[in-house]
Amino acid sequence: MFLRNKRQQQGNREQQARGKQVHQHQEVRLLRQQSNGSIPEHDVQRPRSLRLRLMLWYGTLLIVALACFAALILVLTTDAIGQSVDSAVRAEARIAMLDLQPALSPTSPYWPAQLSLNVVDTYRDPGVAVEILDAQGHTRYHSASGTATDIPVSTETMQDVLAGQMIWYDTTVGSEHVRVEALPVRVPVANEGAGVADVGNSAASSDELPTSGQIIGVLLVAKSLEDADATLLLLRTLLLLAGIVTLGGTLIGSWAIATRVLRPLTGIVTTAQAIALSTARGTRLGNLSQRVPRSQGHDEMAQVVDAFNEMLTALESATRTQRRFVADASHELRAPLTTIQGNLAFLQRHMDELPPQERRTMLADAHEETLRLAKLVEELLLLARADANVDTLPKTEAQEITEAGSTQGTQLVELDHTVLQLIRQLRRRLSLEGSPLKLEIGRIVPVRVRGDEEMLRRVALILLDNAIKYTPASSEEERGRVIVSLEREENHAVLRVRDTGIGIDPAELPHLFERFYRTDRARSRQGTGLGLSIAQTLVEQMGGQITAESTPGKGSTFSVLLPLTALE
């Protein structure tokens, strides 16, 4: 029964593993299909083309602009043509009225038996028709040069004109569109209408019509609008064709411009998709060494490409650091675990064969490695917590820490008291160990900073432990000394720890605060390589800065800058 249950559990685990593997393969295939554009439309929503939208926006704006321009041109042209037609009709009406007045009788009956207008008939215009009606609506005259069809006039218009008004209206004569002016014909009054001998000059020099006398008829002057309508139709056609050609050319040009301008975005998308495809939704990051080609110029798109490449560079550096950190942490954790495992296994197999002294030695070694392992795990947890606090700290709050030195959740710490207390403890430890190393106090001024006292104490302890560890004890005057000072510089408190130890090579200074990094001179000494990384993380979390200066063979100086409180 036990074996059968065990086989069943093993089979379930294998089935779950196969299902998980199939699910991962499906995710990878889906991501590849998405990058190749082969996913069906109902599975993945296709992205909208920004180039197409830009082209449509440009086209819409251009259509609106062309429509406004065409409407303005049409309005101005129509108004100009209309005024020209009205002027021609008005001039013809004045000539016809001046030519009519001498033919009328001042007494009844007013109309001659056969009415003729010599000037109108002589200077006839093929596009103008003149018609005269009496008060009863009978046709008294029709220009021979005009159309044989009577000019349409409504009863209402006749009544208005007989009442003394001048009426303008458009109508159709046959199939021809015409513009008509209707004027009242009055009984001639003495001295009115004189000077008909030079009627052309009279029409040109006088714009006045008879305004007194009885109204006995209606003068109708019609001018064909065929030429005007043809001109407007041609203008509309030309504007439409010009608009279509302009719109087409602009759309093609805008597509080309948008393609050129947005080409860096295509490079960004291609690079990002390549990285995402190589990652395949796993925990391993893809090839972050790829970069987007930068176009010439310094416009906004070039800045976007530069920012994206800088982000990839930062991610690549962070990934390399993380991978090295994982490898170093694994190595540091494996060493004590291997020692503990080996000693315990050996004791388990040869417990009865080993002498008591050797058993105690092996247990002591295992215990020492356990303490080392516990210390390493504690430091890793401290780094993890510090990183989490820095990552979740709002930007405005971090700026307040840096600039004003105040934030919630912290307290005022008298840093000089903390440093002096730590120095006394370390002096006592050195005295008990019998070390001739001198731990000296330089210039200490009273300063208060806002932060966590335990964090500040840990930072100072890390710097002092490093100085003591890498400063050989000697009786020489310039060696075997560690000097601690605390001063004010502008708005910062500066804690300096200077030693006369082995120093650090200049090539190793940039990597000094990297995690698990240990210089060649320090590898022979016990340590994890996390101390300075922890100190830097804690100092930055409090809005400060830590720096290092060193001369090989002469010693090193570590400086911690912390913002002073507003009360200082």
Question: Short summary of the structure?
Answer:
This protein has 568 residues and is α+β, with helices and mostly antiparallel strands. Helices cover 53% and strands 15% of the residues.
What does this protein structure show overall?
Helix 12 (453-469) runs antiparallel to helix 13. This protein is an alpha+beta fold. The chain is 53% helix and 15% strand. It is built from 13 helices and 12 strands. Strands 2-1-5-4-3 form a 5-stranded antiparallel sheet. It has a 5-stranded mixed sheet with strand order 7-9-10-12-11.
Question: What is this structure's SSE topology?
Answer:
Blueprint: H1 2-36, H2 50-100, H3 118-122, E1 128-134, E2 139-142, H4 155-162, E3 167-173, E4 176-186, H5 199-205, E5 215-224, H6 226-261, H7 263-279, H8 300-350, H9 356-392, H10 395-403, E6 411-414, H11 415-433, E7 438-444, E8 448-451, H12 453-469, E9 481-489, E10 492-499, H13 531-541, E11 545-551, E12 555-563
Parallel strand pairs: 7-9
Antiparallel strand pairs: 1-2, 1-5, 3-4, 4-5, 6-8, 9-10, 10-12, 11-12
The major beta sheet can be summarized as: 5 strands, antiparallel
**What integer is the average pLDDT?**
77
Rg, Cα atoms, Å: 52 Å
Oligomer: single chain
Low-confidence stretches: 1-7, 34-44, 192-207, 392-409
Helical residue percent band: 40-55%
Number of helices: 13
Provide the spatial order of strands within the biggest beta sheet.
2-1-5-4-3
